[in-house]
Amino acid sequence: MTAADLVVALTRQVADFPSPGVQFKDLTPLLADPRGLAAVTDEIVDVASGADLIAGIDARGFLLAGAVAARLGTGVLAIRKGGKLPPPVHTEHYQLEYGTASLELPADGIELTGRNVVVVDDVLATGGTLAAAHRLLDQAGAQVSRAAVVIELIGLGGRDNVAPLPVHSVCVF
């Protein structure tokens, strides 16, 4: 099976979560399956090769980014939801399909200036979270070369909202 086949087979779909009308894609079964995790990691490693650092978006992006970074022999950076890091932090506020949120990075202790970073997340929906992560890393001086996601929900326009950032999707719904 391809990585995309495994994503389709192992993704649990949850209706009306976290709010009515949202069809949540739960990747927990995919990530718990050794074949699924390996296939998705391998595909993202192929597109992230050459990066200095892999950045994972809170929270499922952490798991994927850690696996990819370990395979590539790079470091991993956690892009956290607002309020989870001690100050000082870089903060970016943004809209998502069912509310508002913020993302943060440490402002001290990690030199990001000029580093080639690939951003990894689980799902690209409207693109708000990925675009905010890109802006946040830019603010910190990083060079974001691309993003990789497990699932892209094509009907929501996320790719257009993060353009011109190149995005690789393992599977499209």
Account of the protein in words:
It is a single chain. With 173 residues, the chain is of the alpha/beta class. The protein contains 6 helices and 9 strands; from the N terminus they run αββααβαββββαβαβ. The strands form 2 sheets. A 7-stranded mixed sheet has the order 5-6-4-3-7-8-9, sandwiched between helices. Strands 1-2 form a two-stranded antiparallel ribbon. α3 crosses α4. It comes from Mycobacterium paraterrae. Catalyzes a salvage reaction resulting in the formation of AMP, that is energically less costly than de novo synthesis. Homodimer.
Mean pLDDT score: 95
Cα gyration radius (Å): 15 Å
Identify the overall geometry.
globular
Quickly give the structural class. Answer: alpha/beta
Main sheet overview = 7 strands, mixed
Order of helices and strands: HEEHHEHEEEEHEHE
**Fraction of residues in H or I helices:** 25-40%
Euclidean distance between termini CA atoms: 17 Å
Strand tally: 9
| Number of H/I helices | 6
Q: In percent, how much strand structure appears in the residues?
A: 35-45%
Widest β-sheet, arrangement of strands: 5-6-4-3-7-8-9
Subunit structure: Homodimer.
Main location: cytoplasm
Function: Catalyzes a salvage reaction resulting in the formation of AMP, that is energically less costly than de novo synthesis.
Domain Phosphoribosyltransferase: 49-152
